[in-house]
Amino acid sequence: MKRLYYLTRTIDSVSEISEDLHDHGVTDWRFHIVSRDEAGLYTHSLHRAGVLDRTDLVRYVERGVMIGALLAFTFILTAQVIGVPAWPMSAWIALLLFAVLAGGWLGGFGGIGAEHYRIRRFHQAIDDGQYLVMVDCPAKHLVTMKHLMAENHPEAQLQGASGTHTNPFAAADGRVHIV
Asked: Please, where are the H alpha helices in 24-156?
């Protein structure tokens, strides 16, 4: 699944795009709109982006889970090496699960307040009153969708494409950096 990003200046254009996408079988679950004019999206009955599309919640929870697991394994291995009194296996598993869940929970606090790393580059345009339309389509329909949007909605400028999965290792610029 690929996600196409379009910017347009008017809510009327977004409304036409929404109607056109619905006419071509694209459901509300396959396109999302980000705007500072939330009331306008509501009054025009447009599908606005949800919290998972606007924030980095998923990515930060994934990071928190990985960090919690890493800390738990480090603690458990250290405890085993230095000879902590024997605990039953269920206690070690409970400790591991607690650390994983606590890491995910704490990561969620950071993610809910952070703008999604893939839409961060559109922040200024959205603040300037533009509308970001994100359309999800299968890779085999990507060319058809681009053609449909270019032909029927030339005012909506294609800004790029990405996958729909979240990469927990992506940096603020959206790329994966090893060092």
From this structure: 38-43, 51-54, 57-82, 89-112, 123-127, 142-152
Tell me the pLDDT tens digit for each residue of 139-176: 898 899 999 999 999 999 999 888 888 878 777 666 76
Burial 89-115 (b: 16+ CB within 10 A, else e): eeeeeeebeebbebbbebbbebbeeeb
Each residue of 65-88: b (16+ CB within 10 Å) or e? bbbbbeebeeebeeeeeeeeeeee
Q: Measure the CA–CA gap between 163 and 152, rounded to whole angstroms.
A: 24
Cite the DSSP H helix spans in 83-120.
89-112
- Please give the DSSP secondary-structure letter assigned to residue 170: B
pTM listed for this prediction:
0.83
Tell me the C-alpha distance between 18 and 143, whole Å.
Answer: 19
Q: CA-to-CA distance for 30 and 105, rounded, in angstroms?
A: 28
- Asked if residues 137 and 29 have their Cβ atoms less than 8 Å apart, the reply is no
2 neighbors 164 (Cβ within 8 angstroms): yes
Q: Say which residue the tokens 């705007």 belong to.
A: 35
pLDDT, tens digit (0-9, with 9 covering 90-100), for 70-87 = 999 999 888 888 877 788
Identity (one letter) of the amino acid at 127? D
